[in-house]
Amino acid sequence: MNHCFVDNFCVASVSSHCDQRCGQRNHIPSDIPIYDGHIHLNQMTSKIQSDLLSIKVTPPIRQFYFINNNHKPDEWLIPNPSLNPSHAHIRSTIGIHPKYFTQKSLYQTLDNLRTYLEISHHNQSPENKIVAVGECGLDETSTTSIKHQIFVFEKQIDLAMQFDLPIVLHCRGSHLYKKLFDCLKSRISDKNQRLHWHCINSNANLYIVDLFLNQFPNSYIGLNGSITYETNFENTLMFKNWLIDRSRYLPDRLIFETDYPYLSPRNLHGTYDPSCALLATSEYLSKTIDDANQNALSYLQFSNRNIETMSVGMKYQKYLKYISLFTIFACLSYLLYTNDYVLMLDSLRLPFTNQSITKPLFSNITLTKNQTNDSILELPPRKTEFQNHVSDFHPRLSIHIFNQNVSLIGNTSKLILLGNGFFGSRDWGIAVPGRSSTQKMTSLFCPFLSERCDITTDFDRFTEADAVVYHIRDSIDQNRATQKRHPKQRFVFALWESPPHTPNLQSYNQFFNWTMTFRFDSHILTSYYSGNAYVHTSSPFYQTMLHENITRKLNLTTITKDHRPSDTILEKKKLGIAAALISNCGGSSKRIQFINELKRYIDVKIYGRCGLSCPSNINCRQFIAENYYFILSFENSLCQDYTTEKFFAALEHPVVPVVLGRTNYSYFIPSSGFIDTNQFSTMITLARHLNESRYNKEKYLSYFSWKKDYVWGLHNFFSPFCDLCLRLHLDSKPNVIDNIHKWWFDNTCQTAQVPP
């Protein structure tokens, strides 16, 4: 990796070294500042400092903000801002690192720290003020005892609260994370205390980090070049999945830092440009999470905002609500007293909005080329049309009834026509003659839409229909459809099967408006999840269904699943380690070959048409769950997002799914709840992992812990029709799919490779 570039982006720039080499590369827009949330300017050579704080480019000059950590008491130094060029802004922290004090000197060091903080507190110049206490915490490599480290750490917590300053945390040694967290909980009385946990990476105790983020709403985690180190496969995999699982919340809680001159990103070494390190870290995070709505630039923007909030922005926020309330009260009192309020309200007519102050400011940032200057990248305008939202709870999918505001729909009703059958069933099992719209929508578990949509098979109502749904595996009368359709009608492409089991679609180009499939990028998601749905008990949908159940007297029942199987259940698992239930002995995924290869290392059985018969008095999947530790949920096709009941049905049972598919399964459940074969390069490493997990009781039980807050029972295979109903009300944007054949077939499936 070049020290000035990340992929094709020039850092442009902190140092003259990079300025001279950028040429016509793509630049980060110069009006976007660079914030480094944790740097050690005092540890640099004078040459590096000179490069860092000098700039030799033509205007406009980028602004740089450095949070300079003074963590060694014998080197504490608050830089004089008048000596810095106008583009470089240094904000200093001061603290006692657990490695850099001795038991003999600790009281004097603490007194000196208090003196620095008092001077800063009374200093009238904002540029000379200390912005945080730290870095401080616990370190297993320190020669000072943990007892004395905790004592000094707690004293620094007290000082930070006394002077109303954030705390920069340091912890080395995953076993010390809980001790540090316990110190924070016991000493901090105000949960709104600002905290920056520096250097979170694959070596961190992520369970404690989660507790930390939940306990303190104004806390942040520092990500630096160390997240790019992949020295331990299992730790790296766990950390990446952790980032993916929390990707929805990371923009509000991340801070990018270089920790310069330490912890440079992988492939950057020696004298490197800190801006390039920040961009390399952000790019690594962006590629790990792989969110179409975010990229390296947007994550940098989030970090910039959070650093600003952390260091200066939050200090007076706790007083803001009181000032605002007082101002509103004063204005209303005046208006009421003068009788001018009627005229004022009549002239304003402003809608009330409810926007959280912590809502991400750049939630839809993408990098786009500026048409007038190919070397500059800019932020696109915010879109205003209907947009998919992802649930706050697993499954983290764009299921509209989980994520859209139902109160926004009007009082009109939409008509959905089933344009053909579903594997020969004309009514699809839902548009049964004689059933009311209330009965239909209740059976689909969206009774709150019962007066907002109806589903019919009556072709005489074709021209009335707002949507006509066609199951692509059944015959379609295209001539009748073309003759009767009207411009505002939605023709919906519905399919549950994978591309290898789909007919040629060339004749349907420019025929359909919306897609209704298992693909995550479909307009309506028809995941097999719908047939075995699980719902978080804190989700808005679950709360709505509880209300509907009471007010409509629906007699709905839900089922909880065991999130910690008992010893009795575990003791019954005596037939082997793993088993699969397979009825299709072919399939492009080569799952039979995969299992035969796995059999060389561990005991694996196949049940169903392709193997042994299950006892006739029990469901076969239940039989496997009761007698084996793992169930091999292997798909017959390795196609984009294709995930069937082989995975979802297994979740209801006390057995751990081992998956083979081309899907990010962590969208469905936490990554701690399944084992993905794609994460193992050889068959023997997979076999070893299964065997070790089987004999490690706590490890095995941890796969079920996510089920604690979920219930089953609110599901129907055709529940996506609820989403179709809702989207018909909310999305009026015209749309025609020009080439449905290309969308469905091109680069969507991969050839199976059985690991050696």
Automatic annotation (TrEMBL):
<dbReference type="InterPro" id="IPR032466">
    <property type="entry name" value="Metal_Hydrolase"/>
</dbReference>
<dbReference type="Pfam" id="PF01026">
    <property type="entry name" value="TatD_DNase"/>
</dbReference>
<dbReference type="InterPro" id="IPR001503">
    <property type="entry name" value="Glyco_trans_10"/>
</dbReference>
<dbReference type="InterPro" id="IPR038577">
    <property type="entry name" value="GT10-like_C_sf"/>
</dbReference>
<dbReference type="GO" id="GO:0008417">
    <property type="term" value="F:fucosyltransferase activity"/>
</dbReference>
<dbReference type="GO" id="GO:0016788">
    <property type="term" value="F:hydrolase activity, acting on ester bonds"/>
</dbReference>
<dbReference type="Pfam" id="PF00852">
    <property type="entry name" value="Glyco_transf_10"/>
</dbReference>
<dbReference type="Pfam" id="PF17039">
    <property type="entry name" value="Glyco_tran_10_N"/>
</dbReference>
<feature type="domain" description="Fucosyltransferase N-terminal">
    <location>
        <begin position="445"/>
        <end position="528"/>
    </location>
</feature>
<dbReference type="InterPro" id="IPR031481">
    <property type="entry name" value="Glyco_tran_10_N"/>
</dbReference>
<keyword id="KW-0735">Signal-anchor</keyword>
<keyword id="KW-0472">Membrane</keyword>
<dbReference type="InterPro" id="IPR055270">
    <property type="entry name" value="Glyco_tran_10_C"/>
</dbReference>
<keyword id="KW-1133">Transmembrane helix</keyword>
<feature type="transmembrane region" description="Helical">
    <location>
        <begin position="319"/>
        <end position="337"/>
    </location>
</feature>
<keyword id="KW-0808">Transferase</keyword>
<feature type="domain" description="Fucosyltransferase C-terminal">
    <location>
        <begin position="573"/>
        <end position="743"/>
    </location>
</feature>
<keyword id="KW-0325">Glycoprotein</keyword>
<comment type="pathway">
    <text>Protein modification; protein glycosylation.</text>
</comment>
<comment type="similarity">
    <text>Belongs to the glycosyltransferase 10 family.</text>
</comment>
<keyword id="KW-0333">Golgi apparatus</keyword>
<keyword id="KW-0328">Glycosyltransferase</keyword>
<keyword id="KW-0812">Transmembrane</keyword>
<comment type="similarity">
    <text>Belongs to the metallo-dependent hydrolases superfamily. TatD-type hydrolase family.</text>
</comment>
<dbReference type="GO" id="GO:0032580">
    <property type="term" value="C:Golgi cisterna membrane"/>
</dbReference>
<protein>
    <recommendedName>
        <fullName>Fucosyltransferase</fullName>
        <ecNumber>2.4.1.-</ecNumber>
    </recommendedName>
</protein>
<dbReference type="GO" id="GO:0000139">
    <property type="term" value="C:Golgi membrane"/>
</dbReference>
<dbReference type="InterPro" id="IPR001130">
    <property type="entry name" value="TatD-like"/>
</dbReference>
